[in-house]
Amino acid sequence: MQLGYSFRLYPNAAQQAALARAFGCARVVFNDAVRAREDARQAGRPFPTAGELSRKLVTAAKQTKERSWLGEVSAVVLQQSLRDVEAAYRNFFASLKGARKGPRLGPPRFKSRKDQRQSIRFTANARWKIADGGRLDLPKIGAVKVKWSRALPTTPTSVTVIKDAAGRFFASFVIDTDPAADQARMPATDRTVGIDLGLTHFAVLSDGTKIDSPRFLRRAEKKLKKAQRELSRKQKGSKNRAKARLKVARAHAKVADARREFHHQLSTRLISENQGIAVEDLAVVGLTRTRLAKSVHDAGWASFVNMLEYKARRYGRTLVKIGRFEPTSQVCSTCGVNDGPKPLNVREWTCSACGSVHDRDHNAALNVKTAAGLAVSACGAPVRPESVLAQREETGSHGFPTGNRAA
């Protein structure tokens, strides 16, 4: 399994200028490759191959007066930008054919120099290294200061340098983990749990535990409104507007960081304590079109469930998603009788068949566990670890919105 470890970078002024050049060159090569493929499509010609694009847009372009500045950055950065174009087109065609899960993807679009988030990637052949003093030595950029929050378990296969909308720099290292070592970190247990996600409480567990919703966005709403109001009053294109935009971006980043750290801590705790976990497959996209949209976005259910999913794969746990149409709030968890739908303001009800008094959310969590088959027997058979994409940073590392970390 591949995971990512992300760390904050602190480049000096000269290194920031070198990174800006690298970001710009990677963007230009990406746009040139998209334009070359689009021109070929309009002319009815076959798409140029990756090798042809590399020779024309990188090797030959460096010899021209218009693109001579491409030689100021590492060639690996430019080659990885071409690989990103290939991956984008591959995903686009797979989406058209229905071979790719998820929403329909469009073709790659040109990158704008005004995009606030920029990134470049260095693979092993770029000869980057971690110096003895703990600095990250990048080709044609220099030794950049890193704030190490943990040790890397193995030698990384690549590093991605990212600048986010708040003007912060990060290094995201991709690590190949050992499934046997990961599962040894969390011995098997006979405990199982059902989870009912909500807004009043972020999660209610089948054992009766209620986890309050932190409401990070709601708590920071007053500060965010003030920062956004100040931004709207600044003249477009002015330096004061750029400063105000950065202030807004940092405020939003702080909210996102806190939410992500909360998700990681809770998901790691649930995975470590339980062999089997059941959760409802919520229609998050549909709920974001209702009057509860802001609260649903603030809760971040989809992100939390995704963390549970890949951590279960990594540590040999079982995660079961039950259907969203399962009447978990209507069925009595004691006798199994469906007592009919209930409005959201009904938080406690009595079963008409057996007389059991139920807390709405706790009863739903018990029914989620039963519907997943975890109430009958513990999930002693671990899920076979599978390859998953590098995930975002996890608890234990300082939370940032870019890069990836492992728990």
Explain what this protein looks like in three dimensions.
This protein is of the alpha+beta class. It has helices spanning 13-43, 50-59, 75-97, 179-185, 216-232, 239-273, 284-287, 293-299, 301-315, 360-371; strands at residues 2-10, 118-123, 129-130, 136-138, 142-147, 158-163, 169-176, 192-197, 201-205, 210-212, 276-280, 318-322, 348-350, 357-359. A hairpin with a 6-residue loop joins strand 13 (348-350) and strand 14. The longest helix has 35 residues, at 239-273. 33% of the residues are buried.
Strand content: 15-25%
Rg over CA atoms, rounded to whole Å, is 25 Å
**Major sheet:** 7 strands, antiparallel
In spatial order, strands of the major sheet run 2-6-7-1-5-4-3
Order of helices and strands: EHHHEEEEEEHEEEHHEHHHEEEH
Task: Give a brief outline of the structure.
This protein has 407 residues and is an alpha+beta fold. It has helices at 13-43, 50-59, 75-97, 179-185, 216-232, 239-273, 284-287, 293-299, 301-315, 360-371; strands at 2-10, 118-123, 129-130, 136-138, 142-147, 158-163, 169-176, 192-197, 201-205, 210-212, 276-280, 318-322, 348-350, 357-359.
Blueprint of the fold:
Blueprint: E1 2-10, H1 13-43, H2 50-59, H3 75-97, E2 118-123, E3 129-130, E4 136-138, E5 142-147, E6 158-163, E7 169-176, H4 179-185, E8 192-197, E9 201-205, E10 210-212, H5 216-232, H6 239-273, E11 276-280, H7 284-287, H8 293-299, H9 301-315, E12 318-322, E13 348-350, E14 357-359, H10 360-371
Parallel strand pairs: 8-11, 11-12
Antiparallel strand pairs: 1-5, 1-7, 2-6, 3-4, 4-5, 6-7, 8-9, 9-10, 13-14
